[in-house]
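User: I've been going back and forth on whether these two constructs are worth ordering. Before I decide, could you fold them both?

Assistant: Sure. I'll take them in the order you sent them. The first construct and its structure tokens:
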Amino acid sequence: PRQPQPANVAAQYNANLIQAAKQEQARRSLSKFSQYVNPTLAFNWFHLDVCHQLEQFYRDSMAGLSPRLMIFAPPRHGKSEILSRLFPAWCLGKSPDMAFIGSSYSTDLANKMNRDVQRYIESDSYADVFPDTQLGGKSGDEVRTASSFEIVGRKGAYRSAGVGTGITGMGADIAIIDDPVKDAAQANSATYRKSVYEWYQTTLLTRISAGG
């Protein structure tokens, strides 16, 4: 077979260097990771700022500083995509022993976000960036369902739960609450708001690891 010409070899070498640099950036930066594994995701100053805040939140969590972060934005701004799907996947790539609890106003929605995190982790682009973080299969000992999954050979796990439901037996280094209310009717109900806050105080907070 014909041998590659020097120019082609150099071009391929440069392409490999560029690809390796993109993968390293994705390992270090949530925004770069998000764009690497989801190239169709539109990014502007808002998304970059959310990623910056979440990166600091991750570092504070790893340092055991018990961080708290609240993000508010109108619907359809991509906050759930970054916060509830890409962020857990990125954290589990960097720290595969971390444990997550993801919650929303309904168990079905919380489970859907759980499955989306799983899809990111099992994608080829994710394997380019974090090859050592893998999901358990049907034949393995690790749990993998619509509501829970574990990382192969590590302590990392992600469990989902609806707001107001019991989460006994679960623990988390990071807990995410994405849309604790369904609509304006719930938001305007003092009774519902009280029930959400009581669940947060008496159920969710009791499952957070020290410093998480």
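The second construct, handled the same way:
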Amino acid sequence: WSFYTVNHLDTVPPFMNRIAHQGYIAGIVTMAYLLYRYVLMLIYQESDTVISVPKCVHAFLIATFLGVLFLPIRYISHPVSNYSMGPMAYLAYISIIVYISLIAYQIYRHRIKLLYKTKLAITISFGVTSLCLIYQAIYPYSLISGIGFTIITLAFYLTIENPDATLVELLKEEKIKSDAANRAKSAFLANTSHEIRTPINTILGMNEMILRENDNEAIEEYA
């Protein structure tokens, strides 16, 4: 909707154009915040580390939404494609940079506890998103910021949330547990066999001595 309105400045009323861009930028900010919360959830699932969202992050989110409501925005006409600039657009860039920085900090802090697959998916997806943001900052008429979030969503789904990938991970974990149980069973049987065999051989040896050397018929019968 915002792409359409910004490229039809002559026919779309200014208030509708502003509402469209407010919704778009608010959606980007919300997406960035939710991705930050999602990464915190992944860290909790894989390391049992509870990470609460700092109050300053919530305050920043509220301030960002207020900025989306009240900050000005201007529209630039370009032969390739029109685009929006101004404080509201800059606020979207700043918020995304803040959340990516927070995610990078948490990943670095808990890198030892996270699975390699999780770290790789997050690193690649947010790396590509950062490149998209840099490219759009240099060429603002390219309008590819949304592609970055699409890549993040696909990367997380295909590598972390995909049911098949999750099933493979569960099968690997169950195989590891099964192998460990088999090793424990083999070790138990080996130890138990040794512990039983030794006293039985002792008893049989003593009984053989009784049968060979005893003269008492009753004892020999017992033996």
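Notes on the second construct follow. The helical segments are 2-6, 14-47, 55-70, 87-109, 116-138, 145-161, 163-213, 217-222. Residues 133 and 193 are 67 Å apart (CA to CA).
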